[in-house]
Amino acid sequence: MKTSLLSVAVARLRREAGSRSGFPFVSDPEMVRQVVVLAWPAVVEQLLNTSVGLVDAYLVGHLGAAALAGVGLSAQVMMLNWALFASVGVGATALVARYVGAGRPAEASRTATQALLLALAVGLGVGALLFAGAPLILRLLGGAPEVVAEGTPYLRTVAASVGLMAVLFVGNAVLRGAGDTRTPMLVMFLINAVNIAVASSLVYGVGPLPALGVVGSGLGAATARSLGGLVVLGILVQGRAGLRLALGGPRRRLPLPRPDGGRMVQVLRIGLPAGGEQLLMRVAQVVMATLVTRLGTASYAAHQLVIQVMAISYMPGWGFALAATTLVGQELGAGRPDRATRSGYTALGLAVGVMVLVGGLLFAFAEHVVAFFTRDAAVIRLGAQAMRVAAFYQPFLSGLMVLGGGLRGAGDTRTPLLIQGGTIWLVRLPLVYLFGLVLGWDVVGVHLAMGVDFGVRAFLFERRFRSGKWQTVLKT
């Protein structure tokens, strides 16, 4: 009896100490298991998603620096789409997680249906604009004539897939909100297999197939992601993780869902700040890309390679952030705010450990990794230097990713908008200009500036999460 009472007292002291410090102990084995079960498929999924870009970089990198820079600049343009998709995906994830946690699967399914309908409409519109304006967009971003010539056909090819890409993005988002991170991972395996098969056959030409260069790489990515969007749509029509798309009744000529303006507004009310956050960040990254292009083609190519490769070390943070988003939303839906807080910090602790390890490996083998993608000596030298700098900001990056994910799961999307949008414009861009151009530190200075930016963001996110004010932002 005395031992039992002592154990209860110690447990209570730990809980109280964690509550006072704002950083609860990562001591709940069941919560650790929940986080890991949700996170590891998401990590693999994002790794596979990134590998689509890595395959493109590998295949195109051997075509020359202009081709690599053209595809990289086009990739920056395509990433602006994520800002629009995030307006739908983040809102849908938060609402679906909240409804699932509250035991209301029918509401979760209706929300998923309207989110996908909205995503398809947005994606088709954006794809048409990108196709029509590809060369002008690349010129406005500062691309040299040879870079625009290589990037335009790639951008137009990929733009044709944006509608189904939006379905893929949002469909995976609602599945994760329901607690299913394995299905998106399996879909990404399929996407990678298709991309590798198509792109490797068409970039250089295999057998009777023509050598299409950068267009072949774009066809691989576009075909793979379009197929992925169709597969996710089919899975949700059949039903998965308690979700089933609410399609039209038998009397309708086409089994399409009826638009529900009220529910779409509910999704966008939460998601628009997330979309604004992504838009501010993506535009800032494009501005940064224009600054880096002023350093020369070799420097820009090196920067793009580092961004692609370092994305590998971001994968654990992204996976644990998604786990935090899902668990925070579901725990709040179930009326357990204390567990919501603990799930966020548990995900953070695990993410820091894994990301530091991966960053260390990339630091140690920086030159070998960059040399795998290109034979250009200048690109290898600059890329390795920048990658070693980037390896040091992994802990900061894990903090802003995971705690930001927790806030979004709670529906607190305005705070990430203010923090992310503010620091990238007020901290990163001025420092990129100062370190990279004024002081002449080239791409090393660019990544030093990024490290300072990530450190400031991580501090601000932790302060907000510790306050607990995010627990009462969303009402459903």
Please provide a brief summary of the model:
This protein is mainly alpha-helical and 476 residues long. Helix content is 82%, strand content 0%.
**Global outline:** globular
Helix/strand structural class:
mainly alpha
Number of strands: 0
User: What fraction of the residues are assigned to beta strands by DSSP?
Assistant: under 5%
Number of alpha- plus pi-helical segments:
16
Question: Which residues form runs of ≥5 with pLDDT under 50?
Answer: 1-23
Q: Residue-averaged pLDDT, rounded? A: 85
Which H/E pattern describes the elements? HHHHHHHHHHHHHHHH
Helix content: over 70%
- In angstroms, what is the radius of gyration? 22 Å
Number of domains: 1
Largest sheet: none
The end-to-end distance, rounded to whole angstroms, is: 44 Å
Identify the notable features of this structure and list them briefly:
0% strand; mainly alpha; disordered N terminus; 476 residues; globular; single chain; 82% helix
